[in-house]
Amino acid sequence: MLLNELLTEFQKSSSKSEVELDLIRRAFIFSQKAHQGQKRKSGESYFNHPYETAFKTAQWRLDSLTIAAALLHDVVEDVGIDLEEIRKEFGEEIAFLVDGVTKLGRLKYRGIETQAENLRKMVLALSKDLRVVLIKLADRLHNMKTLFAIPPQKQKRVALETSEIYAPLAYRLGMQELAGELEDLAFPYLHPGEYRWLLQNIKERYEERQNYLEKVKPIIEKALEEQGIEPIKIDFRAKRYSSLYKKLLRYDMNLEQIYDLVALRIIVKTIEECYAALGIIHQLWPPLPGRIKDYISLPKPNGYRSLHTTVFCLDNKPIEFQIRTLEMHEQAENGIAAQWAYEQKKGTKEYLEEKPIFANKKELLWVQQLRNWQKDFFDSGEFLQSLKIDFFKDRIFAITPKGEVIDLPAGATPVDFAYGIHSEVGNQCIGARVNSRIVPLDYQLQSGDIVEILIQKSKKPSQSWLKFVKTGYAKKKIKSALRQSPMLVRKGNFQTEFKITVADRIGILKDITAVISRSHINIIKVSVPETGHFPNLRIRCDLNDKKKIEKLILKLKKIKGVKEINYKIV
Ligand code: MN
């Protein structure tokens, strides 16, 4: 039943091969089985969620691989099925898409305003393929629709993340309809008071306007018909609460100033008809000066095309009209997804063959499109040179334990990360944990890594860092710190190197360095050669007094997880 509905939706725009249908069938059954017995917080069966997610991607006319991946998007994270199994059953590309969505699921936005843009970039960087973003957006849409079922604290976080990260991403992908829907779903959770106010004050006006427009509609239909224009559709578009609220803030909450509370939308066949219809409307009613917007000859940065005008309509009431073709309308609703469907239809044969469609080749066209659409994306900074999904391939985005995103060049190390937080954190850095594991300071970070920097007060940077740091900023700061403290470039037999075998538990490195610091011993370097059963830490200290060394060892041995300590004077 459900499966048939999904397959029907998938085949709506064009006929599909048996191979594609079978792929969706298999993914459907696999996912249904995997989620069997699982319930969502709302009480409904869990499978409903991946199903709705997949259905949305089918409505966007995405390919069978994407729909299959959408069906499977939660089986790794929520059921614990190995990605390997997905790869064996469904092939490399679906495994790649599922893995991408799983990774995005681990990102959390914690409301640091300046971080939103970095996090948006990070979503794209981690996705590598726009289809991953699209599945994630479909997933988020369904989660927002069922947000009422989860605890209030979490509601707020998810709603904020939706409004700050996913809705703007959807908008930039040209998916205005989705962006608006996400915003509207988040709005009551973010601004409950304002939402209630709007409900109380707007509802009547919406109805009043709709009734009014019902009277306008036949007049305009007749006028168009007289000029030989047969519109595909005339409907009303009520302004969304979230965007109405934003607009009201700009107009001192004066509802009378909002002319597009409910707009009349006319869909015609050609661009010529768009302009002709505009002329006809202006013959009927005088336009408000300064309110005619030609987004056809000058599309919005996200690709939106349409003609807008506000006229003094019946009884002299200002009313907004929006005029566009069906193609423009579909693009405004579905943006990049509409583009994707269009490109797919174009190349049918090769595109829809059984062989997986790898993003790179296919991407070119719509990436080009995207690039044109997303000028505002570039305008916001120097970092964006192109908008291929791999356009972040030279950047990595790593996160502090508090959720702050640090934007770094590819190949950057924990030391670069530390300097990215603050020069003092860089200077005092003695070690790092990445995703809860101790790593050497020259470790190469990956996008999405959670990086915890361990510091020791009054520690100075090491000359050797200059060999591996990637950012110019870190280099500069290291050099200047070294210049200020020539003492530190000491050579010779002043130092002791401890080799400590430890169990890898959270906080152990911190505990060890804290004990050393409390003994007023300066740490020169911490390194982690990962051999043997337990990690071996090597810690080099400014120390060559046997008594002090032995005292320190006694203290260190008391730390939980410390197995064995050796040392040598170097
Ligand atoms: Mn999900």
UniProtKB/TrEMBL annotation:
One of its GO terms (biological process) is guanosine tetraphosphate metabolic process. Pathway: Purine metabolism. SUPFAM superfamilies: ACT-like, HD-domain/PDEase-like, Nucleotidyltransferase, TGS-like. CDD domains: HDc, NT_Rel-Spo_like, TGS_RSH. It comes from the Bacteria. Residues 497-570 form the ACT domain. Residues 394-455 form the TGS domain. Residues 46-144 form the HD domain. GO terms for cellular component: plasma membrane. In eubacteria ppGpp (guanosine 3'-diphosphate 5'-diphosphate) is a mediator of the stringent response that coordinates a variety of cellular activities in response to changes in nutritional abundance. PANTHER family: GTP PYROPHOSPHOKINASE, GUANOSINE-3',5'-BIS DIPHOSPHATE 3'-PYROPHOSPHOHYDROLASE. Belongs to the relA/spoT family. This is (P)ppGpp synthetase.
